[in-house]
Design brief:
By secondary structure, the chain is of the alpha/beta class. The chain has 3 domains: 1-67, OB fold (Dihydrolipoamide Acetyltransferase, E2P); 91-123 and 300-461, Rossmann fold; 130-279, Beta Barrel (OB fold (Dihydrolipoamide Acetyltransferase, E2P)). The chain contains 10 helices and 22 strands. β14 and β15 (287-292) form a beta hairpin. α1 packs parallel to α10 (422-432) and α3 (179-195) packs antiparallel against α4 (234-247). The protein is globular and about 70 Å long.
Length: 471
């Protein structure tokens, strides 16, 4: 049977792909199905056909998997955020573990890698401390909403449909943030609608309201609201900010970022503080961090603490070591380890992050951390010492091959690698095991109901024995 685009086929789903799509097969052809769960028997319609695989959408679930549950979110299956909400949480953890193991085998070439069971999130909902919602003048209506198009029009404030930049769902709540955040979301929507100032067109690049970003401090139970607009109009934004502040308790500060460019990023060229002081304070473990609207901070504070404690356990510091931290960001890992090390040096390319790191050290009374700002490829060869422990926490793309070569040349005794992408973790470790023993990998689930999984890997430099002299 030749499979073509538009065909309806019957599939038995037997695996979960990285990212959350179910996998079935027909005549040897792999078919990826969004929303399918291993154990499902379904009919699906093919909407994309390539030489080696196809993609399909569920038409009917003929027999549900025992691991299938009813998603509590009404936008599940349409929103791009939670792609595994229909899967029992314990099974999500099993799939994520399998993804790490498979990446190590297929990409890293390491069979039987020592991958521990995934540490679950303490919260499966309400765990995010930052949410970014997009305004749009072209609302994407759900099937049951189609009869409301004429009365409700194109206004939307919400989240994107997967794989699109202009399809925005109008959402009244997101279960990944605390309920107070949803109250702020709903009230902000009504205030903006009543302003009658046009929202931004993602295709026309015309309009005023662009994004609403909410940040939350679980430590102090306080919120930051950031309106991102295309221009500076305090006469429009300030009255709305004041009305929102009066209506909702718990808002510490409201800011307005002005972003006039076409790029769809919720970061402004200029920031105006409308109420409060423009910052939040949150904690990871015993340490406090001051966060501004555009600061990087882990979006799951409790999950970050779990990862940092694992980093500390693998580092095994006793107070005498020198530590080098690559991609040090705002200094969260160095600060977390500072009390157990003699000296920590962080390297970070973003000047703003380095300033935040230095400020965070001062505010936490940390004096044994310093930060170098610049390109890793230029700074690493100039490091005048061999660290006892090297911490690596790169972006999703992993380490640049030149940085990886420099890491191996530096030859630290221990390496602790923190990753948000099993594929690039496996690729980099596959190179590192030429000189290092992979002791253990500990996956951590920071983002339940999504396909993402973090992992912390422990490596130790392999001992080299001197060659024996021949008689």
């Amino acid at each position: 049977m030749t499979v073509r685009r538009g065909d309806t086929v019957e599939l038995a789903i037997d695996r979960m792909a990285f990212g959350g799509k179910g996998i079935g097969r027909i005549n040897g052809l792999v078919v990826f199905v969004a929303g399918a769960v291993p154990g499902d028997r379904i009919t699906a319609r093919i909407y994309r056909k390539k030489r080696d695989y196809a993609e399909a959408g569920i038409v009917e679930i003929l027999s549900p998997s025992p691991d299938r549950v009813v998603p509590p979110c009404p936008y599940s299956g349409y929103c791009g955020g939670c792609r595994m909400q229909q899967v029992r949480y314990e099974k999500q953890l099993a799939f994520k573990h399998a993804h790490v193991v498979e990446a190590m085998e297929r990409i890293g070439g390491l069979e039987h890698a020592p991958v521990r069971p995934v540490i679950p999130s303490s919260r499966t909902f309400g765990y995010r401390n930052k949410m970014e919602f997009s305004f749009s003048d072209r609302r994407w209506y759900l099937p049951h909403e189609l009869d409301r198009r004429e009365t409700e029009g194109g206004f939307a404030l919400g989240l994107h449909v997967p794989g699109t930049f202009y399809k925005v769902l109008d959402v009244t709540a997101c279960l990944l943030q605390r309920e107070k955040g949803n109250e702020i979301l709903r009230e902000a929507r009504e205030l903006v609608r009543r302003s009658r100032v046009p929202v931004y067109g993602l295709r026309t690049h015309e309009g005023f309201w662009r994004f609403l970003t909410l940040r939350y401090s679980a430590a102090l139970d306080e919120w930051m609201v950031n309106f991102v607009t295309s221009g500076e109009r305090p006469d429009i934004v300030l009255p709305i900010a004041r009305a929102l502040d009066r209506k909702i308790d718990g808002i510490k500060t409201i800011v307005n970022n002005i972003h006039s460019g076409k790029a769809a990023v919720a970061v402004g060229q200029k920031e105006i503080v409308l109420t409060g002081d423009g910052t939040l304070t949150d904690r990871i473990g015993p340490f406090t961090f001051r966060i501004s609207a555009n600061s990087f901070f882990q979006t799951n504070s409790e999950g970050a603490e779990t990862i940092y404690r694992q980093v500390a356990a693998y580092a095994g510091l006793n107070g005498t070591e020198t530590v080098l931290d690559l991609y040090s960001g705002t200094g969260t890992i160095p600060i977390f380890l500072a009390g157990k090390a003699r000296r920590i040096t962080g390297i970070e390319i973003n000047p703003g992050a380095v300033l935040d790191a230095e400020r965070n050290c001062r505010e936490n009374g940390i004096r044994n951390c310093r930060f170098l700002c610049g390109d890793m490829r230029k700074i690493l060869p100039e490091i005048p010492f061999r660290p006892d422990v090297l911490i690596i926490d790169p972006p999703r793309a992993g380490m640049h091959k030149a940085v990886l070569a420099q890491v191996l040349a530096l030859s630290p005794g221990k390496i602790v690698y923190v990753s948000c992408n099993p594929a690039t973790l496996a690729r980099d470790i596959g190179e590192m095991v030429r000189d290092y023993d992979l002791l253990e990998i500990q996956p951590v689930d920071m983002f339940p109901h999504t396909g993402h999984v973090e992992a912390v890997a422990s490596l130790a430099r392999r001992k080299r024995f001197p060659a024996q002299k021949r008689n």
